[in-house]
Amino acid sequence: MNTTTAAVVRTPGADAPAELSTVELAIVTLPAPAADEVLVSVAAATINPVDVAVVSGFWHSIGAITQTEHTGLGWDVAGTVLAVGSAVTALAAGDRVAGLHAGVDHAVGSAADHVLLPASAVALVPETLDLVAAASLPLNALTAAQLLDLLGTPTPGATLLVTGAAGAVGGHALRLAARLGWTVTGLARESDRDYVESAGATFTSALPEAPTFDAVADTAVLAEVAVAAVVDGGRYAGVIPVAVPEGVRGVTTTAVMAAPDGERLASLLAQAAEGLLDTRVHATLPLAEADKAVRTVAAGGVRGRVVVLP
């Protein structure tokens, strides 16, 4: 058995008693790795909007969390393998890895000093990519890649609008879509024009007045407003599976639920090491300030990841 110090929520929601800390550190016992698991010493983890929703009580309110004592925070992780399960052959102690600790119903998330992960959710980090940068990638880069999967292979000249194009998922979607062959336009604030254009996309700060694009990757969750930008018979893919807008005019609508994929993540990490994907970091904070990290993400408007360092 091992123990880990983890950022957790005991009393989620705005109605939590004032004397209770919403986000705190807890010492939690971890079992030895199962046959298909790896134990990772965490070097960096990130806080995401999904963690803010844990702290706010949203996931508890819809019955997605069943933890009775506390709920761990964090999905992205990068660090060093300490031990591997008996069936794991592709990884070994000492390997530098990144991975996705998916789901919200955990006693321990990646915002901890140690975490257990399925080996299939982990990928080796290229030597030229530091672990803080690597931790910025798994959730958002995999979400972007799997979001584009839902839109299918573009035909020559097919046009794609990425909403929220300067955001964490949207920024990756811009770059990945262009390499897939889409003709990409990025919807963002005027202040983000340089960022969008640096990704090789056409910048726009406003949605079109009439259906214009063959497909929309809606990372800004504009929903019906974004569907209206798609031509008849086109495709829409969003990032909120529980709130897929209705398809109209023959537009197909769907949404992505990011899933761990170590093989896909290895490719994305390699692209980041080559400078083909960005690894923006807004701030790094010690694990002891995980509450501040959550508040920073909740405030919105940041460009780059908020990373906690055990």
TrEMBL record:
Gene3D superfamilies assigned to the protein according to its UniProt record, in alphabetical order: Medium-chain alcohol dehydrogenases, catalytic domain, NAD(P)-binding Rossmann-like Domain
Superkingdom of origin: Bacteria
InterPro entries: ADH-like_N, ER, GroES-like_sf, Lipid_raft_assoc_Zn_ADH, NAD(P)-bd_dom_sf
Molecular function in Gene Ontology: oxidoreductase activity
One Pfam family, short name: ADH_N
Coiled-coil annotated residue ranges, if any: none
UniProt domain Enoyl reductase (ER): residue ranges: 18-308
Extent of the signal sequence: none
Name of the protein described by the UniProt record: Zinc-binding dehydrogenase
